[in-house]
Amino acid sequence: MRESIAVALLGAQRLFREGLRSLIDQTPGFSVVGEAGAASDIAGLIAKHKTDILVLGATVRDFQNQETASAGVVKDLRARNQNVRILCVGSESSAGHVVKTIQIGVDGYIGLESSSSKLIRALEALSKGGSYFDGQIVADAIRNMTKAPMATKATLDGKEKLSPRERDVLDLFMEGLNNKRIGNRLFISPKTVEVHKRNIKEKLGFDDYAQMMRRLLKCDSVAVRTEPR
Fold first, then answer.
1. Residue 164 in 3-state DSSP?
2. Which residue among 133, 154, 169 closes a domain?
3. What CATH number is given to the structural domain containing 58?
């Protein structure tokens, strides 16, 4: 039985990789099995070490346009049918980068300014087959893409299958609120919020929350508000 989750690191800056390695190696249940600074090295590294999770930095060697670097890495790995889970630690300022990377197929996205505890929560979620998206970053990215104080509600095939409460939960989810904050808005418990999210996922035919997030980002409009979280 495997004792720890195998993690690989990809990022152009050595200090970025060394910092992550030190943090992850001190976290029970996880170990860094390899690292690379160039995109051309990562596919072989993942296959060699049977990697479970790839932590992908904001900049990667081999790409002239760093705005598309991480998205290019994700696209290449998915084309190779490598089942590694991908957590992107990326820019919080580029709306296009955030949205495109999620659409292409990352399983998690957090910002470079994220705390170490948020990184560990993201790794734990991915290690269990789940996903982890920093709701604030995603909501801000969508807001910047739409360039409007408030967009209309998300348009999804099959949304009519959802109950009024499930629609409320879905809209607040896409505003970037976590279960606790959604619960506070709707006067329900975080556990009830999770039940509603699971029902939404099943009714709309999504395998996981990452797939649901990508589908929502492909809609013509999503719910985005500028009020405080």
1. helix
2. 133
3. 3.40.50.2300
Cα 74 from chain centroid? 12
Q: Are residues 120 and 150 in the same domain?
A: no
Please answer whether residues 39 and 64 qualify as being in contact, where contact means their C-beta atoms are separated by less than 8 angstroms.
no
Question: What b-and-e string marks burial along 83-111, b requiring 16 or more CB atoms within 10 Å of the CB?
Answer: ebbbbbbbbbebbebbbbbbebbbbbbbb
Question: Do 9 and 116 fall into the same domain?
Answer: yes
Tens digits of residue pLDDT in 21-78: 999 999 999 999 999 988 888 888 998 888 999 999 877 765 555 555 677 788 888 8
Decide if 148 contacts 32 (C-beta within 8 A).
no
pTM greater than 0.85:
no
Note whether 172 and 110 are same-domain residues: no
Domain count, the chain: 2
- DSSP-derived secondary structure for 99-146: HHHHHHT-SEEEETT--HHHHHHHHHHHHTT--EE-HHHHHHHHHHHH
